[in-house]
Amino acid sequence: MTLHAITVLGHDRPGIIAGTTARLAGLGLNLEDSSMTLLRGHFAMTLVCSGAADEAAIATALAPLGEDGTLTVTVREVPAEQPATSDGSPWVLTVHGGDRTGIVSTVVGEVASAGGNITDLTTRLAGDLYLLVAELDLPAGTDVDVLQASIGQVAADLGVVATLRPAEADDL
After folding, report:
1. For residue 171, is it within any domain?
2. Do 86 and 37 contact (CB within 8 A), yes or no?
3. What range does the domain containing 106 cover?
């Protein structure tokens, strides 16, 4: 089976998910992974589908979604790779405080420096309050106290508060 990554981006309206997934199901594609959200009134969806349809057939089937110019749809084949296994542990990082430039890049830079992998990240801006929630995979042997201290220091420098805690099964 071939895997394809599909993105749908643009102005939100009812029926985008239903229309997209119906067309994919009509091609016999199986939806394996997905992420869908609204970003400031704009719809953003990424799907990974498997099946026998080729890139051209998928693009043709999804083309009507973008005909009015409000959505952009992309399709590309992706290599069939086994999901990475980790000997690490799952953690949740939350950051909140006044909005300012550089919060994400600075805080996640500390995670990257420790060899951590961010497996999911969401941010929201509500008025002047900025919120970041990230799921992390930290490698075995990570000195979590040192990482927590470094994240705390850069967060304080940014005027925000950061919390790093082990992920509970209910969190993921």
Report:
1. no
2. no
3. 89-166
83 falls within a domain: no
Give pLDDT tens digits for 52-62: 999 999 999 99
**Residue in the block written with tokens 């993921």:** 172
Q: Which two tokens stand for residue 169?
A: 């099964």
pLDDT at position 87 is: 80
CA distance 126 to 19: 30
List, for the chain, all residue ranges whose pLDDT scores fall below the cut of 70.
82-86, 169-172
Strand partners of residue 131 = 96, 124
Q: Token digits for 17?
A: 């998910």
pTM recorded for the entire structure: 0.79
Q: What is the rounded distance in angstroms from the CA atom of residue 74 to the CA atom of residue 69? A: 13
Domain count, the chain: 2
Pairing between strand 89-98 and 30-39? unpaired
